[in-house]
Design brief:
This protein is an all-alpha fold. The protein folds into 2 domains: 2-110, no CATH class; 113-141, no CATH class. 71% of the residues lie in helices and 0% in strands. The chain contains 7 helices and no strands. The chain has helices at 2-6, 15-41, 47-72, 77-98, 102-105, 124-130, 132-140. α3 (47-72) packs antiparallel against α4 (77-98) and α6 crosses α7 (132-140). The longest helix has 27 residues, at 15-41. The radius of gyration is 19 Å and the shape is globular.
Length: 141
């Protein structure tokens, strides 16, 4: 939503960078949850295919997006923000409408996973204490 709003402020040279910072901050906050959702909704049998498709879509967007932005930059700058924002909103709507919780509609015990993949009711800090690799990975990222 912030990216769509940014499209209306393309000539505001102080407000636009602030809006972009906030927008991409929220993208960064949502990315680990998005990756976890992809891993959680896939099975060990199709996880490689699901991750490959996810990376393919990301790389395709990273390749095509800047080319389109280059054509739009001088005369249609607002459309860069509107297109990026609308693409994000469409992605969120697709997840909301078509992605279901696998626990709701499948037989249990089909998954072969490690103890580290088990769901937990612990707080974030307790999880970091139990699994310090997550904290190290987050810092390195």
């Amino acid at each position: 939503i912030i990216l769509v709003v940014s499209g209306f402020f393309t000539d505001w040279h102080t407000l636009l960078p602030a809006l972009l910072f906030v927008s991409y901050f929220f993208f960064g906050v949502a990315l680990p949850a998005s990756n976890a959702l992809v891993a959680d909704l896939s099975t060990p049998a199709n996880r490689n295919a699901v991750m490959s498709l996810s990376y393919l879509a990301y790389n395709l967007g990273s390749g095509v997006g800047p080319v389109l932005a280059g054509y739009l930059f001088w005369h249609y700058t607002a459309w860069i923000f509107w297109g990026n924002g609308l693409a994000g909103l469409i992605g969120v709507i697709i997840v909301l409408m078509y992605v279901t919780n696998p626990a709701d509609n499948r037989v249990t015990n089909y998954r072969e996973h490690s103890e580290l993949e088990e769901a937990t009711d612990a707080s974030v800090w307790q999880v970091f204490k139990q699994r310090p690799r997550l904290l190290v990975f987050g810092v390195l990222c």
